[in-house]
């Protein structure tokens, strides 16, 4: 069978109306399990998201921990792989204090996940390019640290990889523009250092930085 490519486009911001119409036509016939793409705002990528205050920054990290705590290793937890919106939901309210209205969805491209006796994972050895970026690239440095922790045994259990990505998020929070005091910055820097002593994100939940954010222990 020969297929033909009639065109290729790179899109950003909201879905074009023609793409939405095409999706809705397919959905009407096939009943898609996914959300209608028209519901996604133009600024859904967290790379462009502006954190409003320090409590919001703390809550975002706590949600990342909640996601990682159930024997799930994300292995690619940079801002571009996080979607966030400010509203209360049953998902977030089961873990977070009601004063925090954040909902987090994490994509699972490089994941490792255990279910009963099954291990689902992506063998990152098949894609060496991300590990070869310059040393000054924080994201590439995190990939390399993760490779050292796993010793390239990607099917193994290495919850420390989640901690590496939490440190990456903390580093970015220090650089992101939002209202934070000198005390806030000091707390973030201290957290980044203390994360070195944790072997998993679940262990990190006990850190004083997250005190008062979670309703129940993970």
Automatic annotation (TrEMBL):
Q: Which InterPro entries match?
A: GSG2_C
> What's the catalysed reaction?
L-threonyl-[protein] + ATP = O-phospho-L-threonyl-[protein] + ADP + H(+); L-seryl-[protein] + ATP = O-phospho-L-seryl-[protein] + ADP + H(+)
Checking Pfam families in the record gives: Haspin_kinase
User: GO molecular function: any one?
Assistant: histone H3T3 kinase activity
Top-level taxon: Eukaryota
On whether Transferase is a keyword of this UniProt record, the answer is yes
Q: Which residues form the Serine/threonine-protein kinase haspin C-terminal domain?
A: 128-210
Q: What class of enzyme is it?
A: transferase
Q: One biological process GO term for this chain?
A: intracellular signal transduction
CC annotations in GO:
cytoplasm; nucleus
Q: Supply the EC number(s).
A: 2.7.11.1
Q: Which UniProt keywords apply?
A: ATP-binding, Kinase, Nucleotide-binding, Serine/threonine-protein kinase, Transferase
**PANTHER family associated with the record:** INTERLEUKIN-1 RECEPTOR-ASSOCIATED KINASE, SERINE_THREONINE-PROTEIN KINASE HASPIN
Q: What is this protein called?
A: non-specific serine/threonine protein kinase
């Amino acid at each position: 069978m020969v297929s033909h490519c009639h065109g290729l486009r790179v899109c950003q911001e909201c879905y074009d109306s023609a793409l939405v119409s095409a999706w809705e036509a397919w959905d009407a016939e096939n009943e898609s399990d996914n959300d209608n793409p028209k519901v996604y705002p133009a600024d859904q990528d967290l790379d462009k998201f502006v954190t409003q205050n320090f409590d919001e920054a703390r809550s975002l990290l706590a949600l990342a921990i909640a996601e990682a705590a159930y024997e799930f290793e994300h292995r690619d937890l940079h801002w571009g792989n996080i979607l966030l919106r400010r509203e209360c939901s049953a998902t977030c309210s089961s873990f977070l204090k009601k004063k925090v209205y954040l909902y987090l969805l994490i994509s699972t491209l490089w994941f490792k996940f255990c279910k009963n006796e099954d291990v689902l994972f992506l063998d990152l050895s098949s894609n060496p390019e991300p590990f070869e970026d310059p040393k000054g690239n924080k994201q590439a440095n995190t990939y390399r640290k993760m490779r050292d922790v796993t010793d390239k045994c990607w099917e193994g259990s290495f919850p420390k990889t989640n901690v590496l990505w939490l440190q990456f998020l903390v580093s970015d929070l220090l650089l992101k523009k939002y209202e934070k005091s000198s005390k806030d910055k000091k707390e973030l820097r201290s957290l980044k250092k203390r994360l070195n002593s944790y072997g998993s994100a679940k262990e990190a939940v006990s850190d004083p930085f997250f005190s008062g954010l979670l309703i129940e222990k993970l």
